[in-house]
Amino acid sequence: xxxxxxxxxxxCSSTPGPVARLLHxxxxxxxxxxxxxxxxxxxxAIFDNIVYDLRLANGxxxxxxxxxxxxxxxxxxxxxxxxxxxxxxxxxxxxxxSDAATSADWLPVLHVTFRA
Length: 116
Prior knowledge:
39% of the residues lie in helices and 0% in strands. It has 116 residues and is an all-alpha fold.
């Protein structure tokens, strides 16, 4: 059986040409989402490209990407700075985390302002 789609890292591209789009279609092996403990920039780019328009089993699209809350993170951190002293330890929890990328993006911003 012939299956078209993206199955290897070298097939991933954020700007595929017309031939690549024709050959690979919209099928993507989710094994490509596996990355090492310390992902490279290429690992992150592949993850972001696949997850950006990932459709879940219930029909909902995830539509996510790294840094999507960058402006909100800065605003919220400034608001927390007004409410709490810098030497205060904050307990921050993200209850709806799927891959915790949003939390991981915000953590360095919080570390600059509040003690770890």
